[in-house]
Amino acid sequence: MYGRYTQDLGTFAKDEAARLRLQEGDTPRPRRPSELLEYTQGRCAPCRVCALQCQRFLISKVGEDWVFLILLGLVMALVSWAMDFAIATCLQAQKWMYGGLDTNVLLQYMAWVTYPTVLITFSAGFTQILAPQAVGSGIPEMKTILRGVVLKEYLTLKTFVAKVIGLTCALGSGMPLGKEGPFVHIASMCAALLSRFLSLFGGFYENEARNIEMLAAACAVGVGCCFAAPIGGVLFSIEVTSTFFAVRNYWRGFFAATFSAFIFRVLAVWNKDEETITALFKTRFRLDFPFDLQELPAFAVIGIASGFGGALFVYLNRKIVQFMRRQKTINRFLMKKRLLFPALVTLIISTLTFPPGFGQFMAGQLTQKDTLVTLFDNQTWAKQGINDEFEYLGILEAWRHPRSNVFVTLVVFILMKFWMSALATTIPVPCGAFMPVFVIGAAFGRLVGESMAAWFPDGIHADSNIYRIVPGGYAVVGAAALSGAVTHTVSTAVIVFELTGQISHILPVMIAVILANAVAQSLQPSLYDSIIRIKKLPYLPELGWGHHEKYNVRVEDIMVRDIHYVTLNCKYRDLQQVLHSTKMKNLPLVESAESMILLGSIERTQVGALLSNQLSPQRRLLTLRQKVLSEDGHRLSDSSIRFQVRGATVLEDAWSGCLPPSPYHPIPPQISTETSSGTSARPALRKPLKPALKRVPSSPADSPPAGTADHTGIALKSLFCANAPTEPTEVR
């Protein structure tokens, strides 16, 4: 039915267009626009007209999607390359300082600890001062924004600057932090700022639905330019940020992510970092026989263990944050000393990774990139636990220790990096958790691979051929499995394929990632959903395993029925009673207690501000003057508005014809009021209700007068419905 309907509609549109062309066939050709007439005179008139038309064509094409996506990909590639260059420079400076002080261990320790502490402290302070919204990953906030929730100051230029500079300093310190999540946030901010800029050329960029589509494409660009993995970036952004993904955004994400990844790798070649465009972590596993079927149970064990490890990582990260918040003494102290917590955490982690100290048992001098390069190495480090059978070269020397074997080093590395990464991701700086988890998973896979190589020193026998076990393949499987378990995504497998440049281990990687997701989803929410719960963002996460019966729960089963509300004709005393009896941040406004028709809602703070504004002495005196001038036509002096209180004459500032008396200046009982002789009471006019979202006039002088009624009810009505219904009275 749908196909036939669209076909009939298209045929009708073509027939209608043909009919209109036939009707307009006898009409004269349209004249040139008046703005082009000034260019049609002179010797170069055709050139001027052509140039103007080309200019208009280019300006109109700026609004096309492909131009926007090219600009987005180009900007993000430049930002990613510049940040990587700055981060590499910072890490190289730390190594230079450490290597230049090799004559004194104490000075080496001071340089090793002070350098990251200064960078992390600067990042935390700069972010808190400029834009606190830049703290953290950014993916939980983007999930909330793509659901339609407006989060203030999350997609502004100020937040963009704070995120870029803060993330560069945080990663340059060498702490176990990641950049994939922050890059998703940075790309989204780029898309929002580009939309705001390009709205100067076309108003369709102000469309909210279009901006949401561009934000969805920007999330893919963030991952694509971070790892040079456009396919995995698109799939990862769909899994992480979207519950319902519009297929029309599919090509936008692929186009922008591919262009961004291409420019990012071209810049690396231009800077002489690479000879040609290759994978970020190129591996050289054998392709003729990458693994044997007998190794599949080992890959399955990696997946199941990674599922438990991912759930434990999310649980540990959440418990650390909750502990810091629930301890009121610690929380109050850290709120006053905001930079103390990141400095203390950095000091502890830097001390433990000091290479001459405990860091010698966990390859403490290696950066995250060097660690991944060594873990993905296709050579076996140890056979039966004996280190001497393998010659360590270059950065592989960091994994060798004379008094322990490689298994002890890998176990210590996994255990220490696990809790260090969970603790470091709670620092109030722009940071992510994907890359540290990725490295831990690679180390766990390497440990299993080295164990398999030790158990089968001669390799797996198949068809009279001997194929030695490749521990680097196990590292690839472990990295994909653990990162997939923490984020609850399957697309990490595709990211690994693009990172390593090989898909020879596609089957074991997919088996491990699926098993890890199955285990992790049954135990804990994803890391991003956990952060959403901690921050209490307005987002409903997916229900995990064992909670499907909650799909039958209705709103009436969980809603609060005893709600304090404000009616349209509510009196001042009733409004004060509502404010004192409830702590709700928003108060519902209904027509009456009988009908209970919802007209809208108002924030508690806004009610207090409106009351203090409406009931101020200056406002009452100004309102009384305006109404008297508009109805009587003469000016009322200040001396005529007076009343006698216990023998003293004071300026009347607690009574007006349309506002209730102030609670700070109550009217004494002995004061009598009289209606001035120049005014007469009018019958109250009942007006229809106005829409709840219509803006209320800023001053009561704009409201039409009505008859005398209860002053408190009229004040509330003028507050919400802009009806000021009383005549001014004069108090003598």
UniProtKB/TrEMBL annotation:
Residues 665-711 are annotated as: Disordered. It is a multi-pass membrane protein. It comes from the Eukaryota. The keyword Plastid does not apply. Residues 684-693 have a biased composition (Basic residues). The chain crosses the membrane at residues 66-88, 109-131, 183-202, 214-238, 250-270, 296-318, 339-358, 434-456, 476-499, 506-523. GO terms for cellular component: chloride channel complex; plasma membrane. It is found in: Membrane. Its main location: membrane. Residues 670-680 have a biased composition (Polar residues). CDD domains: ClC_1_like. One of its GO terms (molecular function) is voltage-gated chloride channel activity. Keywords: CBS domain, Chloride, Chloride channel, Ion channel, Ion transport, Membrane, Repeat, Transmembrane, Transmembrane helix, Transport. This is CLCN2 protein. The gene is Clcn2.
